[in-house]
Design goal:
This protein is mainly alpha-helical. The longest helix has 14 residues.
Length: about 70
Amino acid sequence: MKEAKEEFRQWLVKHTRGCDIQSDGWPCGTCVIDLLVRLGVKENGNHNVEISRENEMWRGILQIRGEEGA
């Protein structure tokens, strides 16, 4: 799993236009959200309440990174 995590980190850096400014060389949230938008992730889906898909995906990435409070 460690290898998959590193490959994912490298993929994010590559596709966030080289952003690697956060801990252990991960891209920042602004660049990841920009990437998600460019990939076509829509802000809101068919839900009764507004959700932020980008924020939820970013929180998932923080969990993969092992960040506290994600």
